[in-house]
From TrEMBL:
MF (Gene Ontology): ATP binding
The keyword Nucleotide-binding is assigned to this record: yes
Keyword Nucleotide-binding recorded: yes
Domain KaiC: 3-238
UniProt-listed SUPFAM superfamilies: P-loop containing nucleoside triphosphate hydrolases
Alphabetical list of PROSITE patterns matching this protein: KAIC (PS51146)
Keywords on record: ATP-binding, Nucleotide-binding
Protein name as catalogued: Circadian regulator CirA
């Protein structure tokens, strides 16, 4: 039996046929404003709020206050309370990039990850995380080490990733192969605003619904509509997220 970790996001768990495979690492890709951080906030918040699972949020982009404000703006009202009671542990960029060597900060976090108290991790974002490595080899080695440690310790992880196109012209990054799941958040401009979509492109070990579904970001966060969209990716290699 494959164990599943529910995101608790309306409509998403059913597309995932029950949830994200427990103990896996899923890449959440999309362009700026697509909703990646909100997805991460909901994953961690719902873990505590609905499933009694503690979470770690590694934020290379926003600081503690930004995250709290973002969470509260979509109605995750008990965010601050869960942070205060250490059910949600946040490492924001100030700590991650403090006087310490970056590797020292990371070792500290990895120690937390080894602590079986936590079950969910969000790394927001992989692009920023990778900026701290000077050379490609070191970057790959650390990414492998990191995903291994998360796996060995039973954590279910989301890594957000800025990706400008679903099928980029340049090489598809290592992270796409390293991770067990791949979820895209897409947004397209329309005359009246933007249309948002979610596409679960990959989830190892799990039968998934690979249709593209419309989503909205509103009070309560991301909501997935049940009817698959008549969405087509005609120009696959150029299609922007
Ligand atoms: N309280 C809210 N109500 C409605 N929509 C919101 C709310 N908060 C955020 N949004 C929408 O969600 C978008 C931002 O989502 P989010 O910060 O998760 O994007 P992101 O993919 O993480 O972007 P980036 O790559 O810049 O980090 C905003 O552009 C806004 O349109
Ligand atoms: Mg973000």
């Amino acid at each position: 039996m494959i164990e599943l970790t529910k995101t608790g996001i309306d409509g998403l768990d059913s597309i995932l046929n029950g949830g994200i495979v427990k103990n896996s690492t899923t890449l959440v890709s999309g362009n700026p404003g697509a909703g990646k951080t909100i997805f991460g906030l909901q994953f961690i918040y719902n873990g505590v709020d609905q499933f009694d699972e503690k979470g770690i949020f590694l934020s290379f982009e926003e600081n503690q206050e930004d995250l709290r404000e973002a969470a509260e703006s979509i109605g995750l009202d008990r965010w601050a309370e869960y942070v205060d009671s250490d059910q949600i542990r946040i490492y924001d960029k100030r700590e991650l990039l403090s006087d310490n060597e970056f590797s020292t900060s990371l070792d500290l976090i990895l120690d937390d990850c080894k602590d079986s108290e936590f079950e969910r991790v969000v790394l927001d974002s992989l692009a920023m995380f990778e900026l701290f490595f000077d050379d490609e080899k070191e970057r790959r080695t650390y990414l492998l080490k990191f995903t291994d440690i998360l796996k060995e310790n039973g954590l279910t992880t989301l890594m957000t990733n800025e990706q400008g196109a679903v099928f980029p012209k340049s090489d598809i990054g290592l992270e796409n192969y390293l991770t067990d799941g791949n979820i895209y958040l897409l947004q397209t401009p329309t005359e009246s605003g933007v249309n948002r979509y979610v596409w679960v492109a990959k989830m190892r070990k799990q039968k998934i619904d690979t249709d593209i579904f419309p989503i909205e970001i509103e009070q309560g966060g991301i909501k997935v509509h049940k009817n698959a969209s008549a969405f087509s990716m005609m120009n696959e290699d150029e299609y922007p997220l």
